[in-house]
Amino acid sequence: MTREKLYLPLSGYLMVFVELITLIAGILLIIADFSTPPISLASLMGAFCLLAFVFILPGFFINNPNEAKVLLLFGEYKGTARREGFCWINPFFTKRHISLRARNQNGNVLKVNDKLGNPIEIGAVLVWQVQDTAKATLEVENYQQYVVIQSEAAVRHLANTFPYDDIDEHTDGITLRASADQVNNLLEKELNERLDRAGIKVLEARISHLAYAQEIAGAMLQRQQATAVVAARRQIVEGAVGMVEMALSKLSEKEIVVLDEERKAAMVSNLLVVLCGEKGTQPVLNAGTLYH
Fold first, then answer.
1. Strand order of the sheet with strand 67-73?
2. Boundaries of each Band domain copy (predicted)?
């Protein structure tokens, strides 16, 4: 596997000075030789200087910040020029431009099945950049397309690994909806493993879209509503039982009224109806005695 190695190009300004010297020297030698025929070695030296001028010219290039050039010589990798500014290299080198800037990718919304087989819609956004320029240009055909395909594969694998929601209410399990931080960390780790071959580093990966598929969204919404109603009822009943217990305890402690078991049962029933009912109850006042 090809790995990046740094290549240090020469300063372009220095080579511009050399270019000017070869150009001026070539012109002066040819002019001087033609003025004193016959043609001698000076003309050959002048022609050589002009050829050197033409040969040096294609070696100039500019590297902007966060850009690099992958250099090849007759199909052999020679290194990567990361030096910024005006530079010069061997004109026979083939230069492949590559950007080192961080890039955003908003992935497509995919329709997949979660661990429980429920169809869901999921999408992810990631931030990535090229770390190894040799791998990115020489190990894969198109590194940008490689990132797109591998990111979709990683999102699909993640969705198949965990359930969308904890239907069985096991709080110790990881779910796509409730364990967002853990899921994002696992996605980022898997993407870095998949994209290492292309020399790509994922800086951040987040689930950007998560929902049940349309065909089961209505049923799942009813289940969530039923779960919320049951949870609310459970809390109401627990509070009502506590209040009834407190009422009976206070009445017995302060000896306000002495109730037998039958009256206690009737009182508990009435209090639970009042406390747990969805609507306000209408009291019936007993104007006579407590006992018949």
1. 76-81, 67-73, 94-99
2. 58-224
Taking the C-alpha atoms of residue 262 and residue 243, their distance in angstroms, rounded to an integer, is 19
Spatial contact of 79 and 71, defined as CB atoms under 8 Å apart: yes
> How does residue 199 score in pLDDT terms, banded at 50, 70 and 90?
very high
Task: Return d(Cα 20, Cα 58) in angstroms, integer.
Answer: 15
Q: 3-state DSSP call for residue 277?
A: coil
Domain boundaries defined on the chain? 10-98, 103-212, 222-276
pTM of structure: 0.68
Q: Which token pair is 265?
A: 């049962």
Dist. CA 63–CA 118, nearest whole Å: 51
What CA–CA distances, in Å, run from 179 to 24, 91, 165, 256, 282?
Answer: 72, 55, 9, 53, 46
Residues sharing a CB contact under 8 Å with residue 184, sequence separation 6 or more, in sequence order: 205, 206, 207
Alpha carbon 155 to its chain centroid, in Å, reads 10
Residues with Cβ < 8 Å from 111, sequence gap 6 or more? 119, 120, 121, 213
CA dist 3 to 67, 128, 147, 202, 208, Å?
Answer: 18, 19, 19, 18, 33
Q: Name which CATH class applies to 103-212.
A: alpha beta
For residue 171, what is the DSSP state? T
